Amino acid sequence: MRAPAKINLALAVGGVSPDGYHPVATIYQAVDLCDEVRATPQDSPAIDVTVTYDGRSPSETAQVPLHADNLAVRAAALLRERAGVSGGVSLAIRKAIPVSGGMAGGSADGAAALVACDMVWELATPRPTLLRLAAELGSDVPFALLGGTAMGTGRGELVSPVLASGAYYWVLALAATGLSTPAVYAEYDRLHSGFAPPAPQVAPALMAALRAGDTGALGAAMSNDLQDAAISLRPELAHVLAIGEECGALGGLVSGSGPTTVFLAVDEEHALDIALALNGSGACADVVQALGPVGGARPIGG
Ligand code: C5P
Of all protein residues, whose CA lies closest to atom 15 belonging to ligand 1? Predict the structure, then answer.
């Protein structure tokens, strides 16, 4: 199975709830940067995992865990428990999505593992059940199953498709080291201490721009309430955003909790120009061009 990275075209964040999570209103888009998970059933009850990295290998601290904390392992264990499967599975993950990059790479692995295990264990779990299990695994996992362009509410796990016309050319500027999502949310709380943020809402202008496929209006309407917190923890992100702006990106923002920054280009040629400028600046560790929207977790080659 392969599952896509996400970017947040809008991420509105409310005040922290008693359960420690933040209510959000977000617009996700899946882009054609995908992790792959292959599942091989085994008679022993073990759930094993191996990980290979496509392209640049992350530093040791940024590598994904190879034990029970791995979201793909957690997905297999959860499905097995709920479905009453007795055997184990061997999972082989091939990562292309940056680790701790704010692009839901771990969530993509969780979604791909859910679907892959469902297939090799021949469970035919109904889609709504898979979505519920995905929500138990993490806020962004249901969207990795769904793909496309979607609204996320609750803590991000309640997803519904939204109408988006056309294709969007993105340039992603990757950082050498990741940012922890809880740390960015904690910084958001610190920056908002003393005043409660309003209930999160996505700007109607952004929804209209997506419906019309109006990239200029979309770029102008993109926003991320976690951006200031990510920049506060990683001040150099402001410089990366400024480079994208100088190149005439229609919009640029930190993706999710960062540190990946995303830029919307007019077309493929413009995306290449932005990518070259970012690469040449030395302000980021790597640059990737991506097209969205693409579908959610699906068979490799499917
Ligand atoms: O749901 P997930 O496991 O991806 O969340 C990781 C962490 O990010 C949570 O433990 C929480 O600290 C933070 N988070 C949050 N509000 C959200 C989503 C995530 O505070 N809506």
Answer: 21
Write down the pTM of the prediction: 0.95
Are 111 and 187 part of one and the same domain?
no
Ligand 1 center–CA 155 separation, angstroms: 7
Residue nearest to atom 2 of ligand 1 (CA): 138
Contact 30, 293 (CB under 8 A): yes
Enumerate the H helices of the chain as residue ranges: 71-83, 105-120, 127-137, 141-146, 181-191, 204-212, 215-221, 227-233, 237-246, 268-281
- Give the β-pairing of 88-95 and 47-53: parallel
Domain identity same for 154 and 176? no
For residue 261, give its domain range: 168-292
Query: Is residue 107 located within the same domain as residue 174?
Result: no
Domain assignment present for 300: no
Q: Any bridge partners for residue 48, and if so which?
A: 90
Q: Tell me: the pLDDT tens digits for 140-173?
A: 999 999 999 999 999 999 999 999 999 999 999 9
